[in-house]
Structure formats: C-alpha cells, structure tokens
Amino acid sequence: MAKCPRSATPGKRVSRITLDSLLLAEHRSRVGSAAEWHYCPDPGCEVAYFDAAGNTLGKSALSVRVGAKESEPPRPICYCFGHTFEEIEAEVTATGTSKIPDSIAEKCRQGLHDCERRNPQGSCCLGSVRAAMKEAQSSGQRSTADDDCCASPARVPERHSVGRLAAGGAVVSAVLSSACCWLPLVLLAFGATAAGVSGFFERYRPLFLGASAVLLGLGFYLVYVRKPACAPGEACAVPNPRLTGINRAMLWIATAFVAAFALFPSYVGVLLGTGHTGEAASADATYDLEFAVEGMTCEACAASLGSKLASLSGVTAAEVRYSSGRARLRFESPRARPTDQTIAGAVSAAGYRAVLP
Questions:
Q1: DSSP letter string over 164-203?
Q2: Contact 174/212 with Cβ under 8 angstroms?
Q3: Which of 80, 117, 101, 109 shows the shortest CA–CA distance to 236?
Q4: Which of 95, 137, 212, 336 has the most C-beta neighbours closer than 10 Å?
Q5: pTM value?
Q6: Antiparallel, parallel or unpaired: β 37-39 and 47-51
C-alpha cells in the first residue's frame, strides 16, 4: 500500500475526477496523466495527495478546505450537503447524539451525493461523520474506512456499472452474431467485396449467441439478484430507487436489442423481400438458366444476390432462393445471355460461389 512520503501514513487512492474537480488550476499540471495519486488521511500532515514517485500536493493546492486537516472552524466534513465538525459537536452536546449521519445516508439513498467530485478523500464522508459523532460522544472509537455509503469506484466496482457493461457486451455479441446477414449488405452498398464475410461470421454465430446469453444472464443477476456488500444500516444497503430503475430499464432495452439482432437472420427476408427481381423466371423458357449457389447464410444473402444478378447486361429477371440454395436467371434472348465467367464473377463478388451446369 502506498504511504505518504512525509508522514508514512498509508493512503487511499483517489481518481482523476477528484483531482480535476478540487485542485486549483495552477496545480493541475503537476498531476501526470498516468500517475496514481493517493489521499493522506493523517490529520497532522500538510500533504493532501501524493504519488508513488514521492511527489506531493499540499492541502493549500485544493479549492476547498480539508476539514480533517484543519484546526480552525469551520471545518467541513460533508462536502455534498454542507455539514461541519462543529455542527456535529454542537448537536451531540445539545442532545447526546447527532441526526446528521442518518440525514446523509438518506440523501445518499436518493442519489443526491457527488462525493468523488466534492470530497477531498474522493469517497463518501459517512464514515468520517460517524467517527466525528463518536468522538464528540467521547467514545474515542473511529469508524473504519469500510463505513462508506458510496464506495469509491477506484476501490470497489459498482455492481450496477458491471451490470451495464454486461448488457452492453451482450448487445455487441448479438450484433456480431447477425453480422453474417447485415454486414455483406453494408459492404455491397458501399461497393466493397463481401467475399468470405458471411461464412466467417456464420461459423462463429453460435459462439456470439452464447456470449450474449451469458452476459445478459450476468446483467440480470447483478441488477436483480446480487445484493451490495454493505454493513446493516449503511446507505448502500438500501438501493437507490432511481438508479435501480434506470439500470433495470437499460437492461431490458439491451435484451430487446439482443433479441432483435439474434433473430435478424430469421426475419430479414420479410424486410427485404425474396431474391426475385424483374419478370418471373419461367422453368419452361429455353433462355432460362438455373444453377446452385454456395455460401448463402440467410434470406438477406438471397435478396442482395438477386439484385446483383438482375443488374447484369441481358438479364431480365433474377430469382435466388436461400431455402434451396439455387438461382434462376432469365435473358432477353439466348444470344443476350452473359457468359458463365460473367455470372460466376458476379456471384463471387457478392461473396458466394456459383455452381454452373
């Protein structure tokens, strides 16, 4: 654990958000982009922050008073809601206790705190507030750093944040699982070759779908089942209803996106239509050509290939069926029929392989 180079007191890491929010402008340049800074909790030490290289930032470098290191009132202790050490001491003197900790805990439950940006410690003040109350009651016993209503993200990952990441990962996996259908369409729309793209994503489709299911399951577990590790009576032991509602809504929205992309190959044919373009191709016409097409992975492949074949010179109609893996072309006349090389080249450019008779 990193220790303050002046007092040798173990420090708690603070995020860059805390430093950027509280340091005076002339001191911000001293904070390196990759350096890890820590808060020195020693009340008698003038150092507010230090890094592993021994660089320090004194309490005078902050735009707020570091109440824990001050001896003259007012000494701020709760930076989000404006409470001071003196306020707690006065209430304890008058009533024997203080309602300030419960007030802070309730406001934290409502999501009104912004400890990371306002508190020089970069974390919730509730532990310090309760310690100050006990000290005022002459118990001489301080709460530990674990007495925290909103643990710093630098130390404890917030379960809702992990849940959102899991939901986002599930959406990404689902998008990739359907890439065998939509990516070739996008590439062809921009004139790029789609050769091999469908087959690649089709091979890994089960893996992507499995990853989506696992990540969604993790998201639901974190948001609906898992309980935060908090001591009884702490603010974090009671979920923030507003934040919980937002995270649950985001999780269900992510689920809808996952379902839409995972099932995309099944309904894309309805959106794009069949692979038939132009006049109906007749099986009896002597100037029709039917051949097999390999490499198609969904109805979108048939629709895009049908459009490409219909654009060939001399072709009046093109019909491609994904279900049978076959294509049928109709020509203006036998003489207008494109060469086998032209037809095979068009199919290959779309990412598939023609098996001509």
A1: HHHHHHHHHHHHHHTHHHHHHHHHHHTT---TTHHHHHHH
A2: yes
A3: 109
A4: 212
A5: 0.43
A6: antiparallel
Q: Give the pLDDT of residue 204.
A: 77
Within 10 A of 228 (CB to CB), how many other CB atoms are there?
14
pLDDT given for residue 180 in this prediction: 67
Residues 124-133 have pLDDT tens digits of: 998 899 989 9
b/e per residue 235-252 (b: at least 16 CB within 10 A): bbeebbeeeeeebbebbe
Q: What's the pLDDT tens digit per position in 30-42? A: 887 767 999 999 9
CA distances from 175 to 22, 168, 281 (A): 41, 11, 35
Q: Which residues pair with 355 in a beta bridge?
A: 292
Question: What's the CA gap between 335 and 87, in Å, rounded?
Answer: 98
Task: Check residue 234 and give left, alpha or beta (phi > 0: left; psi -120 to 50: alpha).
Answer: beta
Token readout for 100 is 């300030």
- What CA–CA distance (Å, rounded) separates 307 from 273? 11
CATH of domain 271-355: 3.30.70.100
Enclosing H/E stretch for 106 = helix 100-109
The residue written with tokens 């990516």 in the block is 183
Question: How is residue 223 annotated by DSSP?
Answer: I
Furthest CA-CA distance within the chain: 106
* Amino acid letter for position 91: E
Compare 262 and 152 and report the one with higher pLDDT: 262
Q: How many CB atoms lie within 10 A of CB 167?
A: 25
Pairing of strands 275-278, 315-321: antiparallel
CA dihedral sign of residues 112, 115, 119, 125: positive
